[in-house]
Design brief:
mainly alpha; about 0% strand
């Protein structure tokens, strides 16, 4: 577990910023997370835990909508979820599986250090298959669209 005080201070600030962006009080966030407002206050305080990661931090992060692994990523120096990103409504049918797989693969390459290309492709395929299963992207007939544009 990361014990760097600056990393924990950054995590605490990120939690506070995310809570305030959602216009929640510490008590309201604690209620959403199923923890006490004191736990929220301590998490936002950024104090390095004495022994291990408090279970309450994961609950708080989940209540804020952070993905799994975000806490460790922030402690390792990554930007908090949502920073530099904006939510865009997804319209079914406007992105095909091939394009989505390419976008996801590029993101995984940037986000991982030690994964092989084959591991990244396999993880991307799992994600695409799950999105297809949930109806977020359409099935294909096995014919992949061309990525080349003709002269018009």
């Amino acid at each position: 577990m990361n014990r760097d005080p600056q990393s924990w201070a950054r995590l605490g600030q990120a939690l506070r910023t995310a809570r305030e962006a959602r216009s929640l009080t510490q008590a309201e966030l604690g209620e959403l997370a199923g923890v006490s407002s004191r736990s929220v206050q301590e998490a936002e305080g950024g104090t390095v835990p004495k022994k291990r990661m408090p279970y309450t931090i994961a609950r708080i992060a989940a209540a804020l909508g952070w993905p799994e692994g975000a806490i460790d990523a922030i402690l390792d120096g990554a930007a908090p979820p949502g920073e530099g990103w904006r939510d865009v409504p997804a319209d079914q049918g406007h992105i095909d599986a091939e394009r989505l797989a390419g976008i996801m693969t590029n993101a995984m390459v940037r986000a991982t250090e030690h994964a092989t290309a084959a591991e990244i492709r396999a993880a991307t395929q799992i994600a695409v298959d799950e999105m297809r299963r949930q109806g977020l992207i359409r099935e294909t007939d096995g014919v992949q669209p061309s990525t080349k544009r003709g002269n018009s």
